[in-house]
Amino acid sequence: MLCTKTLPLNHPFNYFNSYRTHQKYFSFPPKPKLSYISANHNNNLVLPKLKQTHDEDTKLQTPPTQSYYSSLIQDCITSNSFELGKSIHATILSDGFSPDTFLQTKILMLYARSGDLSDWCIARKLFDEMPVRNLTAWNTMILGYSKIDDYVEVLELFYRMQEEGNCPDKFTFPSVVKAYVKLEDFDGLRQVHCSVIKCGLNQNLVVGGSLVDGYVTFDSMDDAVISFDEIECKNVVSWNSVIRGLVRATRWEEAWETFNRMINLGESPDHFSFATAVRICGALRSLDRGKQVHAKLIVCGFEGDVFVGNSLIDMYAKCWDSESCSKVFDQMKEKDQVTWNSMISGLVQFSNFTKALKLFSKMQTLAFSIDRFNLGSAISACSGLADVKTGREFHGYLVKNFLDSDVIFGSALVDMYSKCGFLEKAHRAFERLAERNEVSWNSLISGYAQDGSLDAFEIYHEMKLAKDVSPDSFTFTNLLNLCSIHGSLDQGKQIHAHLIRTVGMNHLIVETELVHMYAKCGELNYADQIFNGMAERNSYSWNSLIEGYEQNDEPERALQIFRRMQVSGIKPDCFSLTSTISACRKLSNIKNGKELHGFVVRNNLESQGILRCVLVDMYATCGFMDCACRVYNQTSEKDVNIQNVMLSSFIGCGRVDDAKWVFDQMEERNTISWNSILTGFTNSESKDEAFKLFRRMQEEHIESDSSTLVTLFNFCANLPALAQGEQLHSHAIKKGLFVYNSVVVDSSLVDMYAKGGSIERARRIFDNMTDRNVISWNAMINGYAKHGMTAEVLKLYELMQTEGVYPNDSTFLSVLSACSHTGMIHEGLEVFISMLEDFKIVAKAEHYTCMVDLLGRVGLLDEAKEVIEKMPVEPEISTWGALLGACKLHQNIELGKLAADKLFEMDPQNPGHYVLLSNIYAVAGRWKEVEEVRNLMRSRGVVKEPGVSWIDINNETQTFHAGDKSHPKHKEIYDTLRSLLPRMKRLGYVPDAKFVLRNVEDGEDEGESLLQHSERLAIGSGLISLSKNSVIRVFKNLRICGDCHTASKFISKITGRKIIIRDTNRFHHFENGVCSCGDFW
């Protein structure tokens, strides 16, 4: 490469070739005098040599030689006296001295190393015109071109020198290696490496070191290590190079081993070595190693080095040793910008946000600058403190300095506003960004996801369409967690497919979140499959799977996973123990539960409140209330959570008084506390106490939730308390308690009105529901079934499938029950077969019981018996009870006796079975057998459950027993019923003697005896107390008797009143002399 730069006219090169030329164009003295040189140059190395040779006034004392001038020029090069060297060069030219190759090379080196571009062009011209070039001349030019970054010319000279017979040496190869690296020619580097080996220079420190650096740049660490190992005499620079390369390749363990090898071989580390070693310890999160290096560098005197100190702060921060981190910072006498930035960042990492902000302020007072690193950390500190006020001040600073659109600062603002719950501001800050990276997108997605907002999915889809950015592991973990919260399985599967195509599955945090998501969504097979395919598992992975199986009612499997976790070496923590103890509760596995309790005690985990809660719950559920109370009483500081658990435990075992004592002792009560005690009163059927407690909740401004309302609505549904239920419904609407539009609450309302006898109101609520699940449909279908409205049941059963809701086993139970109560045998059989074949639902004993009832009611008693004999599950008490009831209906005494004997074995203390058999005998007039049944009951201590009926009059529930005369208006009630008898008889009513159920004495009026039945008395109370337009609603604890059923039809016709009687099986709607059951019940 020739230099075309125009040279100054007085430049020595212009008179280098021909003295005559210089004589012609310049008035240049024959030779520069020593006085001239001394006056213009001050060089203590060169001037003495000139004085030895020159006479100032007369002549040259000693004729100059090649070595003399070479020595002078070399001294000028050594002392960087390039202008002096040029003057000496001019003397050589003016004297007409002919330099040999050695001197020419020295002059070449003089111009090549001066650093002046004009001199470099002269050097190239000198080099090109040299008749003979030695190796030093070639190396000089190659090194020179390397310094001015002309790497193509470096390689061109390298190959020319070899073509001209010059063999590269240790000074040639480092520049050539650098050229290939800068030109990104890896193959060329490999080729020159081969040349180095051929020349036997691979063991040379400088050449080998350049190869190491080259391979490190190409991230070819295996080649770098090989090159390093071939160096015979290594120094700290070469050790640092290979360690730096291993660090760059994140081969941390190898880097650590190499550092230790350097120490063991006696090489003294420098500040760079120690700083790198400290960085390695931080990357490995190895605090012990980091402290060893720290001790060593103190001994070696590098503790005061700011570069080393900064590395120590970073290492201790990564190892979560806040105390040592602060100690290093406080002891540093010299701190630079990096020091402050590292410390502030570390404090943010340690969640010491307040101190981070204080340090940020102190840094400013010491005149250190605000940059993107420390300001970003300060904004993150605001995020951690949810300090939106300070965050806004930083935001204002960024706006004033036109930095709010910067991707680093802007992303920090998005994160800060998101974590503070200001999602709209976060979105606006996001929109302001000039460019968006993964951090900014993830901060926004994370904010919406942590808020539980499904808008996070929309932002994710926008991110997928954005340029130069794609979702990463952090994106996917946030979205998968959101899927877990909402149970969004389909969305979760789509995200799973996308992450496989992008980040892959080789991420512990992503795989663990997938396990958690699938477990939460009930897809345990997927969760298990991903878990078993994980190369590495942490405690969160195990806990997610254990929790998944426990919450999806597979407690035995949860215990198995827990045992596997212990075998794997992962120590159970609070979360895994909580799920496993809960699994023991579900299994009533007190043995394993006590073992886990022992583990909690041995590992000093009793202070964990959640563990105490699950232990109390486990012992209580397993029936060990003494143990539950012991754990509770040993808790010194009882918070609301453990008190709620104890409260629920007492309620669960029916100890309402003890529950009330715990409730009264509570200093703090939340909605759960109130709901629990409310449940206790409703379970004990303390209607007045339950509603009184609810009114107290309102007075104390305790916010009711869906559980409160569901508890009360269910309570009203199971009592003759429809009026109170209606009032509660109205109150909830007025107080705005339905703003959440809960499908659970609406479904409980449907159930309450249906069971309360107002099936029309139930249907209106059902039709107005914006969201209906299978529970909602089942509530309405079951309501129609209880009211004997089978046609409506079948319509809803078809409609729910049309709307995409699949019936479950409860649905089919209601549909089959409806068919059995109305004798629709063909429809019932068709539904049963569809359940088995179309929906693949395994029939339970309850479903077979419906089929026995269906066949028995239509008189197919042998077929009903055959179903019992062939059903794949063990017949239940209700199954034989259905057959016994059918035998009573069709007066099959022999089969009835068989069914009764089975029931006496399975449930000997239930009086209903004896009563049914006694009724069969009584209807047949076999009073002797009736007496035998009664004697059997007496001998077994079985007491017949008396018939009881209830009616709600003006929000007050009235109770009636057979023959009851305790009511204050009992005389008026009896008179009213007696007055109706003649009119009833004229219309065709005949008292049915078989329902007297005792041997009526001669002359005794059977009609008088029958009107004393509890349901008849309740109707009489309704007739005299309720307005003529009011529906008479009666509830009975047993089945309505046949005569009262007949009498109710006549009473409804005579009085023009609608009468609804709910017995243990169904509702009977009497109106204008007709019952809704069609007399098939």
UniProtKB/TrEMBL annotation:
Q: Which GO terms describe its molecular function?
A: RNA binding; zinc ion binding
Entries under Gene3D superfamilies matching the protein: Tetratricopeptide repeat domain
Kindly state which keywords UniProt assigns to this record, in alphabetical order. Answer: Repeat
Pfam families the UniProt entry points to: DYW_deaminase, E_motif, Eplus_motif, PPR, PPR_2
Residue span, DYW domain: 988-1081
A Gene Ontology biological process term: RNA modification
Q: Which domain of life is it from?
A: Eukaryota
Q: What is this protein called?
A: DYW domain-containing protein
List the source organism: Papaver somniferum (Opium poppy)
